[in-house]
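Model the whole thing, not chain by chain.
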Amino acid sequence: GAVVSQHPSRVICKSGTSVKIECRSLDFQATTMFWYRQFPKKSLMLMATSNEGSKATYEQGVEKDKFLINHASLTLSTLTVTSAHPEDSSFYICSARDIPDGDQYFGPGTRLLVL
Amino acid sequence: QKEVEQNSGPLSVPEGAIASLNCTYSDRVSQSFFWYRQYSGKSPELIMSIYSNGDKEDGRFTAQLNKASQYVSLLIRDSQPSDSATYLCASKTPGAGSYQLTFGKGTKLSVIP
């Protein structure tokens, strides 16, 4: 149980375009989803916390207008990287939990390369 | 500022030996701690969680927590080459909603056949 999927697993795009990444909880309802970013040889950095039906809470230094997060249902959250630039190239990972104090389950990640 | 510190390694151990991974945390409010394993190019996988002082064993893995010293460790007995990965320590800290995880930078473990 507790499976989280992400789509796409890998995406290459041109600078200036927007990219949407989907995160789905497959066998449970995720009241909260998290979006992380990981640069090579670095640890996971939390970008934002998303509660179903409400606006995401962004961590300091993360531009909410650049990284649009939508958590419209209990099984789906999306992250849209708008006007992507090469420095946005990274490994984006979502996680989800079903209850406020529950464990977080991670998706497989999406590798974004902006040319 | 909430921080979780780990030695980045690499930590090399021979196959069959015990691997010892250590982690310290700065936020005394943190009550729960987690060890994740991350293979290269993959997302983290939860191995162990620990909430109380002392040891918690699960198969070849033992997590140890000492809240007075703000120290968490993970022991891997009978290390296997398949254990070679980066191990991330995380603490549960209050955040948006209920809590969020603060991760250390990870310790890279290499188990030599």
